[in-house]
Design a protein that fits this description.
Elements (H helix, E strand, L loop, with lengths): L4 E7 L3 E7 L2 H4 L5 H4 L2 E11 L4 E5 L2 E16 L9 H8 L4 E5 L13 E6 L7 E3 L5 E3 L18 E6 L1 E3 L9 E6 L22 E3 L1 E3 L2 H10 L7 E2 L2
Parallel strand pairs: 3-6, 7-15
Antiparallel strand pairs: 1-2, 3-5, 4-5, 4-13, 5-10, 6-9, 7-12, 8-11, 9-10, 12-14
Length: 234
């Protein structure tokens, strides 16, 4: 039996998620009762899906071009006050001009028809920046409109979400991260794992990302199983 170690992933908001490290195959089986309790499924809501989004950096924040979806999604619960959480905030936004970025598996990364893949940026060499959009706030006034940093107006069904930026540190990272890119795999896209291309400077373009295995974990918690996902490795 192959041995593996337990490591900690950081998902938006600083939450520590414990999973098994040993490659994507281990990450998909890492959902424990304690992990699951940190997440909440928002049922039958309209939400923003940013998992495969590209973003424009301005003044230390990422503004990401996300898709408007309806149905079930999952997020860190982010509970506050008396019973409020990410789902209740998203529901409130329906009549107030905003919504929340939560997760469902994007069709574009599902094999065999998806035209995108999850690119794994290795922990020991990657020092690039990426946006962490779980729980990010999005503004419905941007749907179908022009926005700084994007060459064309958003389509109907697209929305801008404001997301914090994470910067990888090879000196301390114990696990890499994943961003979505074109499929079939393109070696040149891995440049986005490095600071020279992906950084926090105003005017930069970065991608939404998450620690390696997060997408598989959330997919399993939401649906109970994980379809075959397109993946690219350096």
């Amino acid at each position: 039996m192959k041995k593996f170690s337990i490591v900690t992933l950081l998902i938006g908001g600083g939450f520590a998620l414990t999973v098994a490290a040993g490659g994507p195959a281990y990450a998909q089986t890492a959902a424990t009762d304690s992990t699951s309790s940190k997440f909440i499924i928002c049922s039958g809501q309209t939400y923003a899906l940013c998992a495969v989004a590209s973003c424009f950096v301005m003044d230390g924040l990422a503004y990401c071009e996300c898709d408007v979806k309806s149905g079930d999604s999952i997020s860190l619960s982010d509970s506050f006050d008396k019973g409020d959480n990410v789902c209740s905030v998203n529901a409130e936004g329906a009549d107030n001009g905003f919504m929340v970025s939560t997760f469902s598996v994007p069709d574009s990364v599902v094999a065999p028809t998806g035209n995108q893949a999850l690119y794994t940026c290795p922990a020991r060499t990657s020092n690039g920046a990426y946006a962490q959009c779980d729980g990010g706030l999005c503004f419905t006034s941007t749907e179908g409109k022009s926005f700084p940093g994007f060459s064309a107006p958003l389509n109907d069904g697209q929305i801008i979400c404001s997301c914090p930026i994470a910067v990888a540190d090879p000196a301390t990272a114990r696990i890499g991260y994943q961003i979505a890119g074109p499929y079939p795999c393109q070696k040149s896209f891995f440049k986005n794992c490095n600071r020279a291309t992906a950084n926090k400077k105003t005017g930069s373009q970065i991608y939404v990302g998450a620690p390696t295995g997060t997408a598989r974990l959330l997919t399993r918690l939401l649906y109970g199983s994980v379809p075959t996902l397109n993946q690219c490795f350096p």
